[in-house]
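Q: A reviewer asked whether we had any structural model of the full assembly, not just the individual parts. We don't, so I'm hoping you can provide one. Inputs are below.
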Amino acid sequence: GENVEQHPSTLSVQEGDSAVIKCTYSDSASNYFPWYKQELGKRPQLIIDIRSNVGEKKDQRIAVTLNKTAKHFSLHITETQPEDSAVYFCAASFSGGYNKLIFGAGTRLAVHP
Amino acid sequence: GAGVSQSPSNKVTEKGKDVELRCDPISGHTALYWYRQSLGQGLEFLIYFQGNSAPDKSGLPSDRFSAERTGGSVSTLTIQRTQQEDSAVYLCASSGRDRGLNYGYTFGSGTRLTVV
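A: Here is a predicted structure for the entire assembly that you could use as a starting point for your response.
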């Protein structure tokens, strides 16, 4: 069935360190993989996404890598700052060419000054 | 509009009552989604509308839940005979497609439903 697994569920780092969150998906036809950041009491917001025709994408301190063979993708945050503290959700598209996203369970990231 | 609008922002209802939640997507977005987020939990898919196609209702948890999308725009999620386990934040999102490629959802602020 449609499934996205996300690890770890919680992550605590010191300011300036890097943080890595990993996800695996079940549908080999998935072709779109966005990441969302949700601050406490707010809506999820798209921070970066990657399509299946590329292996890596970077935007300032945030990067995402995709391994289609392993059905695995990861979010990397470098030089973490306290304002990076939030819950991060990965997602994968399902149903072939449709845009239905199945989300991982989320990772609560805490960045300590 | 500039963003996805949801109303009401908060709803407290008595167990057994029916509720309607409204979502107004971004103009021009062909796809609309409903998700449910229980306290401290992830995003649970409920239903998905894409243009004029039949909706994907595979995530609706029971037949008490239904949704409509009128005129390809505004959507209403209806929960009949509400139960306490229905308490959650109901998030709506919309997205578009560009040259056949998906692009990311924009979420609304959600409706926090509390069943007492």
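A: Points you may want to mention in the reply: Chain A is about 0% helix and 60% strand. The interface with chain B takes residues 31-32, 34, 42-46, 49, 51, 89, 93, 95, 97-106 of chain A (CB under 8 Å).
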